[in-house]
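Table 4 source record.
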Amino acid sequence: MENILIQPKDLIKQRRESLGLTQKEFAFLLNLKDSGDRTISGWERGEHSPTEAKLKIIKNLSTFIPFKETSKKPSFTFIDLFAGIGGIRLPFQQLNGKCLYSSEWDRFAIKTYASNYGEVPNGDITKIPTDEIPSHDILLAGFPCQAFSQAGLRKGFSDTRGTMFFEIQRILTEKQPKAFLLENVKQLKGHDKGKTLKTILEILRGENRQELSPDYPVSDEVRNSISKKLNYAVDFRVLKANNFGVPQKRERIYIVGFNREYFKNSNILDKKIHDMFSALEQKRSDTRLGDILEENSCVDEKYTISDRLLAGHIRRRKEHKVKGNGFGYSLFNKESSFCNTISARYYKDGSEILIDQSDINKNPRKLTPRECARIQGFPDEFNVSAVSDVQIYKQFGNSVSVPVIRSLSKEMLKILDFS
């Protein structure tokens, strides 16, 4: 039992060290300002004390880190960009990989990441110089799905938010990892009649040297790096999560590349990647939503939707049906093979995935955070309580299907001969 007489300064240091965080990282976790590490230092020396509200947050911080890096002799190294809550990282780490660097800008996602991995990701990748990123074997990135218009490139790319891909290109160019895995929504495949994806693949393969207009909003480092050509064997596929054992109809595009410079017979790389994806496309699994659902009678009442919200769902469903543009909310039960794709907007009304509760004479309910984790394939040890339900719904809606990544990671390591 924790000593109730422990002094605040000792409690703060104890919590921070148990989490394995520096004073700067701990300050970030507590939403302190840029000079927050000095504040933490002062607290730990007893020079001043946090507010009662802040002290309560510190007391409630769990010191159990379920996926803290422990490998002494990793088989390979990787970095985790646009890390979110670490869904891409998890399988690679579990296959004896060591994460050397992570980057994520959303402060709520950072809290969930830190509570599970004991690391606070670095911030906005656009503000991180390449020389601060360590050399690594594999680059992982679930890069943002944002438009790539004609605005910036004379040879046709996307709007200013498309610079996120250029950050990946910058790091690949300077660090030359042996391989990479990129993940995005399936709509990337057809964006701008396929031109966007075609351009991305050409850049990664070294078939397209870009020219940026002078006013395109990227750093000088990005501008300098994209003038250099990459030389990766690259392919992609759209894969369905429900074929990999999770009861969710989630389709995502996965782009995989291997650096030809690291392979003596690089001509066979294209076939290896093609064969890898062909095998993954053949995977099938029988799924049942009930396998990941909690018993309705045991679920907190707060997840049951109100009469007013249900009436609104029913009304909108009728309106949509009349217009012929869909049928509104979707209701599932434990016998359903799988549910719809969970999205980042799920926290609003849960309309895409509602669970039938007629067995206990209640209105339908939303998925619980734990159920959201399960339909994305996260293990039950994964901490879903570091942030509010609203934030965790957003995080799982933006995350990846872990079993798909696990299958990809195993096949990639075979090609790299790291397995």
